[in-house]
Write a structure and sequence with these properties.
The protein is of the alpha/beta class. The protein has one domain (about 5-185): TIM Barrel. It is built from 9 helices and 8 strands. It has helices at about 15-25, 45-60, 85-95, 110-115, 145, 150-155, 165-170, 185, 190-200; strands at about 1-5, 30-35, 65-70, 80-85, 100-105, 120-125, 155-160, 180. It has an 8-stranded parallel beta barrel. Helix 7 links the parallel strand 7 and strand 8 (about 180). Helix 1 runs parallel beside helix 2 and helix 1 packs parallel to helix 9 (about 190-200). About 30% of the residues are buried.
């Protein structure tokens, strides 16, 4: 089971240091960790600096580095790429990054069947709950639709939106590929990671 930590250094400029200290203090965790460099608002020069910082942290602590296609100029071989729910960017990813693992974002289950037909990609579905940073967001995912998916399909799907350690724990048995979290870990990374560890 994988937990993906979504970055936001605009709001939390010391986030890398606090995550580094948390991982040092906690030691091995009973789940896999990824770090997704999202940070859409970063200027290109700042994004390059942060990409180096996050890559160092991931290498130091054994996290998988993931990056948004919005930072295409910074993508390196082996990076996992997050592709927004935008037709032009999906086409760009398909044309130029087929040798990378790509995770396509979907907001709802309407296009899920078509997306799953592409065996080259994994999917990120949201929002499962109201996002902590955007409580007024649109419709939530259809829970019954998620439950009806075959195990092989769930194993290619990551979930996001309003997730906490308490909300993730009962979902682990569903055999989803993983869970992406943003706001919940930014304040105290060590508390979130320790809570996840004790609940699994």
């Amino acid at each position: 089971m994988r937990v993906t930590l979504v970055t936001d250094v605009t709001q939390h400029p010391d986030l890398n240091k606090r995550l580094h200290y948390a991982l040092q203090a906690l030691g091995p965790l009973p789940f896999q960790l990824s770090l997704w460099m999202r940070d859409k608002a970063l200027a290109p020069a700042d994004a390059a600096i942060w990409a180096d910082r996050w890559r160092w942290l991931c290498e130091r602590h054994g996290l998988r580095f993931e990056i948004s296609l919005a930072h295409a100029a910074l993508i390196q071989p082996g990076d996992v790429i997050h592709v927004p729910d935008v037709p032009q960017m999906r086409h760009q990813a398909h044309q130029h990054y087929r040798d990378h693992l790509r995770i396509l974002s979907l907001h709802g289950l309407d296009q899920l069947g078509i997306a799953l037909a592409n065996r080259e990609v994994e999917l990120l579905l949201s929002p499962l709950y109201r996002p902590l940073s955007k409580p007024a967001t649109g419709p939530l995912l259809d829970r019954k639709g998620l439950e009806s998916l075959k195990r092989a399909e769930r194993e290619r799907i990551h979930l996001m939106g309003g997730l906490t350690a308490k909300r993730i724990a009962p979902l682990v048995g569903g055999r989803f590929a993983g869970f992406a979290v943003k706001t919940v870990w930014h304040g105290k990374p060590e508390v979130f990671l320790e809570n996840m560890g004790t609940r699994l």
